[in-house]
Amino acid sequence: MHILRHSSLAVTFCAVLLVVSAPSARAQDNGQTSPQDQQNQGQQAPGQQNEQQATTPIPAYHSPLASQAGDDSDEEAQPLAPDTTPLSGVQNLSLGTLENAHSYWQPHIDIFGSFDSNPEEGPHGSSWGTWTSLSGGVDVHRIAGNSDLALTYTGGGMISSGASATNGVVQELGVVDKFTLRRWTLSLLDNLSYLPEASFGFGGLGNIGTSGGSSGLGAPFGTPGQTILTGIGQSVANAFATEADVNLTPRTSLTFVGGYSLLHYSNTGLLDSGDASFRAGYNYLATRKDTIAVFYTFTAFRYSNFNQSINDHTIQASYGRRVTGKLAFQVAAGPQVAVSRVAITPGAVSGASGGATSTGSSLTQLYWSLDTNLQYQMKRTALVLSYIHGVNAGSGVLGGSVGDVASGSLTRQMSRTFSSGLTAGYSRNSGSLITSTTPVNETFDYWFAGASFSHPIGRTLGLTLSYQMQYQDSNSAFCIGSLCGQSVIRNLISIGVGWHERPLLF
User: What is the distance between the alpha carbons of residues 94 and 83, in angstroms, rounded to a whole number?
Assistant: First the structure.
């Protein structure tokens, strides 16, 4: 019946109304930025780890949007130390690190109700459906001796209120552990995601801030990209990397990185891939704020259910600028040579466009690569932009792809109790279509955009309203599993309440 179809969504809205009707005496006590908010901007610098581990005042509830854009607190924010992340490393530069770092853990629970215009991501849309999403997790930061450990976990599920869509499971885990040994710094990084749909632009839990497996790691060491909509279906993605940094002089250092990532789909019609990567780089601190670097990266793309292999060689020169608490900018560019069994793009024969040459059973193609990231912080506004161009594994749809991926977010603390944010992304992938016996060049263009509004209710509760749109188009008809057509559009409207406990020191 219609009433039963929407029963679980009604429960969610009732819970929200109960929270909103709480006495006004529970209004927010505005406090200083939480350790977790500052931790999201970067890890503690090696030389600052054990200094002044004071017990700072516990803050009131801050929404994820407010934590990025700052707040209107009269209290002085905790001071930041300059970021020391190497430019040729796997992590993006940050705005700075906490000077007064200490160990803590912080749990959170969120419940959302969502209206979905296309719950199965069908090519021509479908009838509106409803979801109830429940998630919980914990953030941990532990400093002990020469170890600096940061862990974040989110787990939950999407429960369909009708037969128009299937249920989904969400599991995300991110771990970064840094060991400082005199002139050496050893970092162990792992990121795992288990999602019911593509991670790029994922908003299934209702809140736009869901990471979708993102970890702040640069290509190609981050969680394998899923920048093509593939319909509803569970997939697991994992990326592990080990980075060793050695300081040669106060201004120069070397970086060595080895990593492996995998992408596996429950839908047998999609490609499962595994990527092994290695990087060696040289960093030079030109000024207190400016760094330059040069590095070489090798990546081997392999597929378990498709006769394709790609060996990718990339040399990049990089520039970075850091202004503590205000700006973190980096850009890397250079030539990229891909040696593949099956042509990634047109130009598979000698003399064709794309600089491809044939050597026996392999094809050598020359491309250009670019990887850039910008973070800019004002008092109440935060801006994050990124763009990547280069060869990737193809998101489970293409047997190798040349892709463009751009994304950005703008968040603003509009008042002491109200924050808002905008987010958007675009990806373009061109490569060999795996569902055809003869490789055919296929191009997918995918956009997503969203808006989110948050309002704290008391010290640990918050109300969030969000909207997200997803649209994908292709230059010809395609079949991705059970998803067949040429374009996909989806709208998602969500409202929910979240409980975020104050940081608990240990």
Answer: 6
CA 405, CA 47: separation in Å to the nearest integer? Answer: 35
Tokens of 465: 């309203």
Predicted confidence (pLDDT) per residue in 52-107, tens digit: 333 333 333 344 444 444 444 433 456 888 999 999 999 999 999 887 778 999 99
- CA 251 from centre of chain: 31
Residues 6+ apart with CB under 8 A from 294: 88, 281, 282, 315, 316, 317, 318
Q: What is the C-alpha separation between 157 and 172, in angstroms, rounded?
A: 12
For residue 102, what is the domain's CATH number? 2.40.160
Which among 413, 462, 420, 496 is positioned nearest to 22, based on CA atoms? Answer: 462
Distance separating alpha carbons of residues 94 and 82, to the nearest angstrom: 9
Q: Three-class SS of residue 495? A: strand
pLDDT at site 408: 94
Domain count, the chain: 1
Taking Cα atoms as reference points, which of 454, 393, 458 lies closest to residue 112? 454
Find the DSSP H helices in 436-479. Answer: none
Res. 351: pLDDT tops 50? no
The one-letter amino acid code at 176 reads: V
Global pTM value: 0.81
Rounded mean pLDDT, 208-227? 65
pLDDT value for 100 = 78
Contact 368, 389 (CB under 8 A): yes
Q: Per DSSP, what are the bridge partners of residue 155?
A: 136, 171
Q: What is the chain's percent helix, strand, coil content, to nearest 5?
A: 5, 55, 40
Phi, psi of 389, deg, nearest 5: -130, 135
Domain that holds residue 257: 2-505
pLDDT, position 346: 60
Cβ(78)–Cβ(247) under 8 Å?
no
Q: What is the pLDDT of residue 221?
A: 81
**Residue with the larger pLDDT of the pair 127 and 408:** 408
Length of the chain as a residue count: 506
Provide the 10 A C-beta neighbour count for residue 379: 11
Alpha-carbon distance 318 to 329, whole Å? 11
C-alpha angle 214-301-402 in degrees, rounded to nearest 5: 75
Q: Report the pLDDT averaged over residues 289-316.
A: 94
- Nearest CA-CA partner of 390 in 372, 357, 368: 368
| DSSP class of 24 | G
C-alpha separations of 368 from 224, 356, 441 in Å: 20, 13, 19
pLDDT tens-place string over residues 109-166: 999 999 988 888 877 666 788 889 999 999 999 999 899 999 999 999 998 877 667 7
Q: How far is CA 67 from the centre of its chain?
A: 17
Among candidate residues 161, 272, 278, the one with its CA nearest the CA of residue 224: 272
